[in-house]
Specification:
26 helices; Jelly Rolls; 785 residues; four-stranded antiparallel β-sheet
Length: 785
């Protein structure tokens, strides 16, 4: 959109022509595009907040990446469920706006005086405005400045000298907490009446909901909250490409600076600015964030403050694909996820540990490494070249003899250093004078079918590999070069398994610290996988990847907390037991070994059959098409919606209908803006009643297992109505996601669809065991319906 003085939207400061990025959206009559000088005059971009002047955003090269929006009471800043969440918002302080207007008035007065003297105007942003336009703009700005100065005086008189004490906007959330809450079906109510099982409420209203703002929405406050001057909000949706989690509406006249992701990224690159933001988060948000975690609920306020939790924590950031925790490492800290998503994997360690290497390994390891120096094998040459000099000297000095204990430890440190370098080890790798850049070229050199299977999901080219993927490959590479000196990772652990996804507000690493044991899982900062939803760009499609921010709490501080309260110790112990049990449940039994022989990209993998821990199958030789399974599904749920659709791929004599298969890797859970899609106690997918109907989970499910249902308009709570400005209507939630919960809420906790089939044609199976154990006879290719 070209912005000109004659357009309905005002130009930059005065309206000079500019081209706005489509992501910014249309400008209202009161909105402005500020000049680079005006932007850098705001406190958010003040040079004192940056380590180096060159780190400040260069707005001369990025015109249109920010816009100043003047908001009257009731103006909607962002709406719950909006998917075009590519910007973040910063509420300017009254002082900032006063300073901005004064600077603008000075330049405006100069321009007016120049014009009146008969000389042509010199300010490029005012060239297209007449003298009458300039004088009218001056009068309007003077009146606005007077109003702002009066507002500043009122704040001072009320003792609101801190910007965080000045309310400016309201966060509102619409959720299905009343009439639309699903009720138990007839079958469940009958069994409960007969005393054959209690009705379990999986739809309890939460105490608080995490949203993309510096505050949570509490039930006691009607799921609404207040934003103040200098608050930054919407940045998590912007960085992680997720729908807006709540609606934000101006509660008084205020000024919002809307910015694209590129501005946020430039700010976060400066260490001093990042330190400032971290300090703000710790002082203003951290205490409340940590304090609200259920594991600390038994600490009194005095105990919480006495332990100095707020000062004992640090804020850390992990790019997509980087490793936060590695299985087998020392448990030295506990993490609380502030933003982003973490994938938790079992049997996914890659580092070498001293207990892993026997005397037989050590007797061969040194010799195999020594051979790498003189071999013509390109991969071995790359490893030898990347080894640090002290490690090379250890290998050369050992000769045919064994290493001493301290030398073994030093060599192990060096080898793990190589693993942690990831694909950087291969930066100079060439074959026939040509750089190796693809996975297939590496696999041709390795000539190892098992490794080929293990890295088949890795993307192309190599530069797109994540930190975890790169480290895993270098471990396989070392195993290839040191065939007898390094144990096979796959033989020790088996294939890695996705245990869960952990989002904002959840805890990582508490089990190891509690039990004083090494880490029991590997945790990786997760990004949207390529291919599930092309609307969600990620690092593998060329867009900037997401990242994870965590609050780090030392093991010592965590243990001090436990020592202060028996209730807290009991709570954490119960939580650890529950998580361990859940991990065992979610992780299906290991495959029989035939999985390793499956060809990469086979239909078995491509069609997602490997994902199904509770894969729905219908034996078409037995099925009479009576529909009893679908009728039982509908009868088991009070909303009249089926979770089972008799459509899908056919594998030999089996139909794979559209129904949740309890995936090992449930990508439907990724990015839910309000955390309403969760794993149940049995690993099933549950969609809680505060779903906002954004369809993100349905779009991301690769197998069409999640559907959207229409619901009645959601009523606002009484407290929300008090917070809503006059004349404002909150966008209604009119649909919600529906997914099969495997009838986990039934007393029998067994799928009704299977139980109701009169011909034993319907079944729930583990896809890996069923299709790889010889149960299926015949081709495994899909046959069109």
């Amino acid at each position: 959109m070209a912005v000109t003085p004659n357009s309905s939207a005002p130009p930059a400061s005065s309206g000079s022509p500019a081209q706005l990025p489509a992501e910014i959206g249309a400008l209202a009559a009161a909105d402005e595009l500020l000049t680079p000088e005006e932007l850098l005059g705001l406190s958010l971009f003040d040079s004192q907040h940056f380590a180096k002047e060159k780190n400040r955003p260069d707005f001369t090269r990025s015109l249109g990446t920010t816009v100043l929006r003047k908001c009257e009471p009731g103006r909607v800043i962002c709406r719950q469920g909006d998917t075009a969440a590519v910007t973040a918002f910063y509420i300017l302080s009254t002082e900032d706006v006063i300073g901005l207007r004064r600077r603008q008035l000075e330049s405006l007065a100069t321009e007016i005086a120049t014009r009146k003297s008969g000389q042509p105007g010199s300010h490029q942003y005012y060239l297209l405005l007449s003298l009458d336009d300039l004088e009218q703009k001056q009068r309007s700005m003077i009146a606005e400045l007077q109003s702002l100065e009066q507002q500043q005086s009122a704040f001072s008189a009320a003792g609101k000298t801190e910007t965080e004490e000045r309310p400016a906007a309201t966060v509102l959330f619409a959720g299905d907490f009343q009439s639309n809450t699903p009720q138990p079906g007839i079958f469940r109510r009958l069994l409960a009446h007969l005393g054959m099982g209690a009705i379990r409420s999986d739809e309890a209203i939460p105490d608080s909901i995490l949203v993309d703002a510096p505050t949570d929405l509490k039930r006691s406050q009607g799921f609404s909250a207040v934003l103040h001057e200098t608050n930054l909000f919407g940045e998590m949706s912007c960085l992680n490409r997720t729908p807006r989690s709540a609606t934000v509406v101006a509660s008084r006249d205020c000024y919002m600076l809307e910015m694209l992701r590129s501005v946020l990224d430039s700010l976060n690159k400066d260490p001093k600015f990042k330190e400032r933001i971290d300090k703000y988060y710790r002082e203003r948000v951290m205490e409340g964030h940590v304090r609200r975690l259920s594991i600390f609920a038994d600490l009194t306020d005095a105990e919480f403050n006495e332990l100095g939790i707020k000062d004992a924590v640090t804020l850390e950031e992990f790019p997509a694909g980087s490793v936060i925790i590695e299985e087998g490492a020392a448990s030295d800290s506990v993490y609380v996820v502030r933003s982003g998503l973490v994938k938790v994997l079992g049997k996914a360690g890659y580092s070498l540990r001293e207990p892993d290497l026997t005397s037989a390994h050590w007797s061969r390891l040194v010799g195999e490494l020594a051979e790498a120096e003189n071999t013509s094998f390109p991969l071995a040459e790359a490893v030898w070249k990347a080894l640090p000099e002290n490690a090379k000297q250890l290998v050369k000095s050992a000769g045919a003899g064994e290493l001493a204990a301290d030398s073994r430890s030093s060599l192990l440190v060096a080898l793990n250093g190589l693993i942690h370098q990831g694909t950087a080890v291969l930066k100079d790798l060439k074959v026939n004078g040509r750089a190796v850049k693809t996975r297939e070229e590496l696999l041709a050199l390795l000539d190892d079918p098992q490794v080929a299977i293990a890295i088949s999901p890795f993307p192309e080219p190599l530069e797109s590999w994540s930190e975890y993927e790169g480290r895993l490959f270098v471990r396989y590479l070392l195993e290839k070069i040191c065939t007898y000196g390094i144990p096979r990772r796959l033989a020790m652990y088996g294939p890695a398994t996705i245990w869960s996804y952990v989002g904002r507000g959840e805890v990582l690493g508490e089990i190891g610290v509690l039990l004083n044991q090494p880490r029991s899982a590997t945790c990786v900062a997760y990004d949207h996988p390529d291919g599930y939803d092309q609307r969600l760009p990620d690092s593998r499609t060329g867009a900037v990847p997401s990242r994870v921010e965590v609050v780090k709490l030392s093991a010592e501080t965590f243990q001090r907390m436990l020592s202060r309260s028996q209730k807290l110790r009991d709570r954490v112990a119960a939580m650890a037991r529950a998580r361990q049990e859940k991990s065992r449940t979610v992780t299906a039994p290991a495959a029989t070994g035939k999985l390793a022989n499956a060809a990469p990209g086979s239909d078995f993998e491509r069609l997602g059959l490997v994902q199904g821990q509770q894969l729905m199958l219908i034996d078409l030789d037995r099925c009479t098409r009576c529909g009893a399974c679908v009728e039982a599904c509908i009868a088991s749920h009070s909303d009249g919606q089926s979770r089972l659709y008799l459509d899908g791929m056919r594998i030999d004599k089996y139909l794979v209908p559209l129904s949740c298969r309890k995936c090992l890797d449930p990508v439907c859970m990724i990015g839910c803006p309000v955390g309403s899609i969760q794993r149940g106690e049995l690993g099933e997918i549950l969609i809680r009643n505060w779903c906002i109907g954004c369809s993100m989970c349905a779009d991301q499910c690769p197998y069409g297992s999640i559907h959207m249902r229409e619901i009645d308009a959601v009523e606002l709570t009484p407290l929300q109505r008090l917070a809503v400005p006059d004349g404002f209507e909150l966008r209604q939630v009119n649909k919600q996601a529906v997914a099969c919960d495997l009838c986990s809420s039934h007393p029998s906790q067994s799928p009704s669809c299977v139980y109701a089939c009169p011909h034993d044609a319907a079944m729930r199976v583990d896809g890996r065991e069923f299709f790889l154990s010889g149960a299926l006879i015949g081709p495994a290719g899909p046959i069109a319906n």
